[in-house]
Write a structure and sequence with these properties.
The protein has about 270 residues and is an alpha+beta fold. Helices cover about 25% and strands about 30% of the residues. The chain is built from six helices and 15 strands. A hairpin with a 4-residue loop joins strand 3 and strand 4. The N terminus is likely disordered.
């Protein structure tokens, strides 16, 4: 009986340790009223949740950051992106998801876009990390710049400016609400294209050379992806059971992505 109770306790603790509910954006469709919302660059890095002791991935796994990297982090919770620079995702992923942390963590910064559990509206919550930085000047912590959006034209202008500089897109957020979790229309991602992930279930070859991947979407739809691969990626192409990201421009009436183009292999986080 005691053994059973111990197992139940351990199981409960495991769930509490590895289940994280985070804010998740919906996609901007040009119909929402975003005047006076706050917009910021959407960084193409690895999302990380700081629980006061450890950095956790969005799936609740501990990120093996070096002790010197997190040594002077605050005791309160943070949500942000581990990042280096634009158009550098593969390098970021290899550094952050390495089981044995390397010296290359020195290239990484933790870019904050939320202070979970803090009371007040969005700007009030951000004040907590700003005050911490004013006192501690932690060089590995950055606060993502927020800009007040005047209207849809202002949003489009800022998006185009960032995309020209190889940014992934924007996040725009209703700043007047208390902290919330889950996918919400009060936080939106804005991109020039849509993106999605799928599992590789097959590989097509022609005359012995790689031609395309056979991908299966979460809803079970299967399609071929042959565009967007570099010469090197066609030689060292993704393998069966890999999860890959791709961009596309809407869906066909059969639910298949239009003009899909390979982005990258997604390692488990």
């Amino acid at each position: 009986m005691r053994l059973l109770l111990l197992l139940i306790l351990l199981f409960t603790l495991q769930i509490s340790l590895f289940s994280i509910e985070l804010q998740k954006p919906k996609t901007y469709n040009h119909s929402q009223n975003i005047t006076n919302w706050l917009m910021s660059e959407k960084l193409d890095g690895i999302r990380a949740y700081w629980n006061g002791k450890n950095l956790l991935s969005k799936n609740g796994n501990i990120i093996n950051a070096p002790s010197w990297f997190i040594k002077n982090f605050p005791k309160f919770q943070l949500d942000g992106e581990l990042w280096t620079k634009r158009d550098d995702f593969e390098n970021i992923q290899s550094i952050v998801l390495d089981k044995i942390p390397s010296k290359h963590w020195n290239e990484i910064t933790y870019n904050i876009f939320e202070v979970p559990e803090e009371k007040g509206n969005f700007l009030k919550r951000l004040e907590k990390i700003k005050k911490f930085q004013e006192k501690h000047h932690n060089k590995y912590i950055k606060i993502i710049k927020q800009i007040r959006c005047k209207n849809k034209e202002h949003l489009e202008e800022y998006l185009n400016k960032l995309v020209e500089q190889k940014a992934e897109g924007l996040i725009i957020k209703n700043p007047d609400l208390e902290y919330f979790i889950g996918r919400s229309p009060n936080i939106l991602k804005v991109k020039k294209f849509k993106d999605m992930e799928a599992e590789v279930i097959g590989i097509n070859y022609k005359n012995g050379n790689f031609k395309s991947l056979v991908l299966k979407l979460e809803n079970g739809i299967i399609f071929n992806l042959g565009n967007g691969f570099s010469k090197e990626e066609r030689i060292n192409h993704p393998k069966i059971k890999d999860m890959v990201s791709f961009k596309y421009y809407n869906l066909t009436k059969y639910g298949k992505p239009k003009f899909a183009s390979f982005l990258r292999v997604r390692k488990l986080e």
